[in-house]
Hints:
The chain is an alpha/beta fold.
Amino acid sequence: MSTAPLPANPDPAPGPHHVAIIMDGNGRWAKARGLPRVAGHRRGADAARRVVRGAGELGIPVLTLFAFSTENWARPADEVNDLMGLLRQYLRNELEELHRNGARLRVIGNRDGLAADIVCDIAEAERLTRANGRIYVNICVNYGARDEILQATRNLARQVAAGETKAEDIDESRFERELLTAGVPDPDLLIRTSGEQRISNFLLWQCAYAELVFVDALWPDFGKQHLEQAIAEFRRRERRYGGVGG
Ligand code: FPP
């Protein structure tokens, strides 16, 4: 038997540890088939279910999906209603399976603008799954990064004015505690589907060092194999964090 030492593992935990996804292209998927936009969103919700399942199977610890931005209110009322209806269905129909599979669900965003029944469903889903730890699933709803950063800044300014915090004590970790994602590690991989190459006001602070992977597939066509390809691309990248690398 050979006594040669095993090759050293270059990185015992290659990641990604947190995958964030901008789910784009539902409208184009529907248009290409002569279907109403809502059909694309419905298939988009199916893709979200598939990808949550796939992420669990791939052992990704944190998955964050951008489902509705603060800017999406500008869409026609019917489309906004359709999207809210799909969110309602997701929260009601998926909760049991998520819980059974050890997922902790969190909804990130401003709840003030949401219907009361959705706010209740969110609270129930978060309460039921709060002790789970196999995968954290965050769904961003009525979320906008600039708004989040402004809100954090206002909170800190109030604390400084009240003498509770000193301006010079505000460092990155103090600031992060005021963000809606407090306690969630930063994404190390950000995926956007549909060939668009923008961040669109999504997790601007948190994605400071994320690897960006843009995928041509439209969101309703996205599946576990696309996720695996994006992860393979992530692992090919050399992450230097401003340093010179190895
Ligand atoms: C972007 O496609 C997608 C959205 C604005 C909504 C994303 C929502 C879902 C996938 C369904 C609900 C999800 C969950 C988790 C319940 P677009 O409409 O901007 O597409 P387009 O750019 O092709 O028009």
